[in-house]
């Protein structure tokens, strides 16, 4: 019995002491709690050879690895955890993970040069439950790249350059619970983008460039509890789009530029039924509702339709965030919302920040003709901060100064879009700001509205020259 006791102590000691045989150079190998090869932060340029075949965990993070070959882990059939994050990996062989049918966690995140993933890179990883692909410089994912990964529960795709996702990319991921897609460049959330994610619990889509969510985009997300869409370029989101989210508890939609008119009514109605927690939805237009929370508006606030000029949006936030860029797409699409059209004249859309459509176009025309034009003097700061929505994008502040010094004789004649072609009015001798002069196409003559008044839009020769450039 004494001998047996000594043998038992010897076996326990061997399990606790790091192994020295068959352990790659610059690595430390352990048997407990599971056979592990730890080679992190060793300045390695290639994956070590002679990795023990019985290894279950391999830690290779924070090195200088550049390539993962098909033979790198071909003998490690017992591998369950593989960490390759924070390297310089730019290429992964399509068969690099083949045969690792016991692998449960794979982390290849924070490899900025890994911009392309093979369509078959993860083929056979049927037991993988966690996959890290964050901060890899990915602009797209191959079709069916996650095919057959039925056990996947956590998928990290944040901090990439993803512009769009193919339909049914996640079709086989019925067990996925967390999907991280924040800080990418996704613009449209399509009907079939999230198809198959019937058990998804958390969807993070914040800090993208989403301008539109298609009506059936959330149709499979009946178990979703958390949805983050803050700091995007959304202006409208319908209640019908949100209806499938019957389990939703946490919703964040702040940092968008919401249009609070009849187009927001279905979302407003949906919030009356929503029992979970939500951020504020600050109205961007109309002006008299700017800054107010859509959820707290009254029904009469959402009547009629306001003009929605192309909105300059910031990359992540509408409040002081850096990196502004002009949105070139119309957030509401090509068609005019039905609630904006009068019953008698479907082609009449009034211009103005808060003017509402009447059902009688003749009466509206009469009211317009009686209106007296008054334009308040714009301050210098207001002019400097004014963003331009023309084809030239955001104009520099020096343009406003050049317009002020423009010779009035150079200003072309102008005419109202509703006036007779034979009658032309002379341009005002006082040059207008760049916001008046450059708007839409320089060749077109439109009618704009300032302070709810109709005034002819100025088309100047300087603007014409700028558009030619």
Automatic annotation (TrEMBL):
The keyword Membrane applies. PROSITE patterns: LRR (PS51450). SMART domains: LRR_SD22, LRR_TYP. Keywords: Cell membrane, Cell projection, Glycoprotein, Leucine-rich repeat, Lipoprotein, Membrane, Receptor, Repeat, Signal. It is found in: Cell membrane; Cell projection; Membrane raft; Membrane. Residues 362-388 have a biased composition (Basic and acidic residues). Belongs to the Nogo receptor family. This is Reticulon 4 receptor. The lineage of its organism: Eukaryota, Metazoa, Chordata, Craniata, Vertebrata.
């Amino acid at each position: 019995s004494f001998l047996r006791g000594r043998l038992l102590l010897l076996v326990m000691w061997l399990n606790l002491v790091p192994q020295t045989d068959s352990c790659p150079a610059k690595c430390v190998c352990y048997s407990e709690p599971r056979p592990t090869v730890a080679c992190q932060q060793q300045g390695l340029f290639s994956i070590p050879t002679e990795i023990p075949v019985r290894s279950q965990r391999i830690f290779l993070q924070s090195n200088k690895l550049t390539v993962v070959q098909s033979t790198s882990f071909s003998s490690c059939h017992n591998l369950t955890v593989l960490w390759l994050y924070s390297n310089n990996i730019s290429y992964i062989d399509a068969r690099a993970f083949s045969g690792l049918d016991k692998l449960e966690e794979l982390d290849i995140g924070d490899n900025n040069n890994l911009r392309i993933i093979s369509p078959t890179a993860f083929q056979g990883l049927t037991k993988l439950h966690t996959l890290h692909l964050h901060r890899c410089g990915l602009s797209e994912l191959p079709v069916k790249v996650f095919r057959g990964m039925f056990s996947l529960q956590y998928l990290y795709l944040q901090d990439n350059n993803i512009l769009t996702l193919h339909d049914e990319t996640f079709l086989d991921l019925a067990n996925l619970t967390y999907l991280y897609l924040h800080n990418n460049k996704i613009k449209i959330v399509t009907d079939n983008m999230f198809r198959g994610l019937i058990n998804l619990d958390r969807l993070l889509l914040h800090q993208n460039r989403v301008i539109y969510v298609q009506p059936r985009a959330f149709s499979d997300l009946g178990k979703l509890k958390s949805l983050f869409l803050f700091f995007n370029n959304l202006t409208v989101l319908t209640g019908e789009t949100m209806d499938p989210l019957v389990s939703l508890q946490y919703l964040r939609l702040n940092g968008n530029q919401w249009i609070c008119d009849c187009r927001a009514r279905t979302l407003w109605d949906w919030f009356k039924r929503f029992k979970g927690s939500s951020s504020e939805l600050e109205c961007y237009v109309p002006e008299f509702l700017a800054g107010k929370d859509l959820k707290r508006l009254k029904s009469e606030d959402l009547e009629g339709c306001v003009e929605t000029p192309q909105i300059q949006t910031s990359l992540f936030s509408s409040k002081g965030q850096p990196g502004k860029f002009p949105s070139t797409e119309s957030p509401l699409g090509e068609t005019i919302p039905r609630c904006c059209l009068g019953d008698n004249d479907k082609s009449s859309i009034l211009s103005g920040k808060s003017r509402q459509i009447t059902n009688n176009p003749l009466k509206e025309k009469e009211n317009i003709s009686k209106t007296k034009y008054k334009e308040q003097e714009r301050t210098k700061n207001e002019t400097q901060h004014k963003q331009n929505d023309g084809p030239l994008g955001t104009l520099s502040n020096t343009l406003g100064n050049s317009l002020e010094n423009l010779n009035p004789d150079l200003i072309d004649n102008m005419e109202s879009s509703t006036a007779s072609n034979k009658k032309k009015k002379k341009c005002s001798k006082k040059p207008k700001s760049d916001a008046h002069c450059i708007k839409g196409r320089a060749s077109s003559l439109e009618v704009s509205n300032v302070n709810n008044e109709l005034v002819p839009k100025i088309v100047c020769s300087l603007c014409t020259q700028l558009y030619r450039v």
